[in-house]
Design brief:
The chain is mainly alpha-helical. The chain has helices at 3-18, 20-27, 34-53, 57-61, 66-94, 96-103, 106-114, 123-146, 154-183, 189-212, 221-252, 255-261, 263-277, 283-302. The protein starts with a helix and ends in an 8-residue tail after the last helix.
Length: 310
């Protein structure tokens, strides 16, 4: 398998794991807040990351300067904690499919920003891919926004705002993380991921008291067991494994293509959402999914080296 194919494979696996983050807010018992779920998830992430990198944390940390530590703190806050609080809120208010659809706009945002990087594929070559991606996402969005009685639902409006905020935060993370990975030469992608986990865990620890100490809902032992199982599962599968796969992919693919890979997260999130709702996709959803897949294939085609005829 060539470099591009391997990168796409890693991106697909990361998307399969990350798709589960959209379903998790539906799996926890009622009464737990998005902040509590995000905090518990990233406490798990931080603890596992600390255990894994513990034997070499001094060596890795010694290679970081002030700029690297600031970047780790910023990426951890924006791309992990804030992002997932917004995602969880949007899912609880507007549903799995709706939220994953909004996040599906990420490839367009990242690709446009990445097209300014040196050596990136121009927008002129990317426009067919962006067009199909936009058609697919707009199609599902139109269905989601027009279903129901047609009245303005404040919960759905707040859910939309949270989903858009999550889109903005993850766009900033995707671009910033990919650019930092290209600058780091003495630190591997896995080490960067684990250090991000340690810093995120530290931030989550600081949030633990306000997140859990002032809750008014009383939960049973069964509720806590279910909640902690979901949070720990997210911390390991999405944060440890998913981030490791994503970072490896980010070193194999250009930034303009990195953005397209998030479409796998959208597809898997929709699949999990359909399974949860025990229904199949509608005609519009099927057409939109095909459009998204075509978008990724066209993006891969645009990144193939141009043959020189002599």
């Amino acid at each position: 398998m060539n470099k591009t194919g391997t990168g796409v494979f890693y991106g697909m696996l990361a998307g399969a794991l990350w798709g589960g983050i959209f379903l998790a807010p539906k799996l926890i018992p009622a009464g737990f807040t998005p902040l509590q779920l995000s905090t518990a998830r990233y406490l798990t992430y931080g603890l596992i990351a600390l255990i894994l990198i513990g034997p070499k944390i001094r060596r890795v940390a010694s290679r970081f300067g002030k700029a690297e530590w600031i970047a780790l703190g910023w990426l951890s806050l924006v791309g992990n904690i804030i992002y997932y609080v917004l995602i969880s809120t949007a899912v609880q208010l507007s549903g799995v499919a709706f939220t994953s659809i909004i996040i599906g706009f990420l490839p367009v945002a990242v690709t446009i920003i990445g097209s300014r990087d040196h050596g990136a594929v121009s927008l002129k070559r990317l426009w067919p891919s962006l067009l199909f991606g936009a058609i697919g996402i707009l199609g599902i969005s139109w269905q989601s926004l027009t279903e129901g009685d047609g009245g303005l639902d404040m919960a759905k409006i707040v859910g939309l705002a949270c989903a858009l905020g999550a889109l903005a935060s993850w766009t900033a993370f995707a671009v910033g993380n990919a650019r930092w990975l290209t600058r780091l030469h003495d630190v591997t992608a896995d080490e960067w991921n684990l250090m991000t986990g340690v810093v995120t865990g530290g931030l989550a620890l600081a949030l633990a008291i306000p997140a859990f100490a002032f809750g008014e809902t009383v939960h049973t032992n069964e509720d806590w067991t279910q909640f902690l199982a979901v949070a720990a599962g997210l911390g390991f599968s999405a944060s440890i494994l998913g981030n490791a796969l994503w970072n490896r992919m980010s070193r194999l693919l250009p930034l303009t293509m990195v953005g397209q890979m998030i479409l796998f997260e959208t597809l898997f999130a929709l699949l999990y959402g359909f399974l949860w709702e025990q229904r199949g996709p509608t005609l519009i959803e099927n057409a939109a999914i095909v459009s998204v897949v075509v978008s990724v294939l066209l993006c891969m085609q645009a990144h193939r080296p141009t043959k020189v005829h002599g």
